[in-house]
Amino acid sequence: INAKYGVPAVARLHKAGVVVYLAYGQVDQKIPYCPIHSKYVVIDDKVVVDGSFNWYNTSVFSHDLVVVVRDANIAKSYLDEFQQICREFRIWRGMDRVYF
């Protein structure tokens, strides 16, 4: 991963103590690619932030959709989906460069 693919944002989050997981396809490709286009976060197992909003600076100037839901049952569905992604795709975790 290099700066072209989002490392500055990941590095800032890592420095703040946030563990970031990036999903990649199921096989190696010349350019990191994953067919997953999900952009969501689950906070404290009960708040979900989801939508078309990209998690970098330029998105604050665009007309993206952001939905915030505070519901533990909905959050669990997102966490279950995340676990499935972790099982089926190659995952890069934070700045540790660890696939699991």
Explained architecture:
Helix content is 26%, strand content 24%. It is of the alpha+beta class and 100 residues long. The strands form 2 sheets. A 3-stranded antiparallel sheet has the order 1-5-6, with helices on one face. The longest helix has 17 residues, at 72-88. It is globular and about 40 Å long. The two termini are 16 Å apart. Mean pLDDT is 78; it is low at 1-5.
Q: Terminal Cα separation, in Å?
A: 16 Å
Beta-strand portion reads 15-25%
Secondary structure: number of strands: 6
Q: With helices defined by DSSP (H or I, 4 residues minimum), what is the helix count?
A: 2
Structural class: alpha+beta
Outline the low-pLDDT stretches.
1-5
Q: So what's the overall shape? A: globular
Q: How would you write the strand order of the largest sheet?
A: 1-5-6
In which range does the helix fraction lie? 25-40%
Mean pLDDT: 78
**What string gives the helices and strands in order?**
HEEEEHEE
The largest sheet, given as strand count, sense and whether it forms a barrel, is:
3 strands, antiparallel
Specify Rg, calculated over alpha carbons. Answer: 14 Å
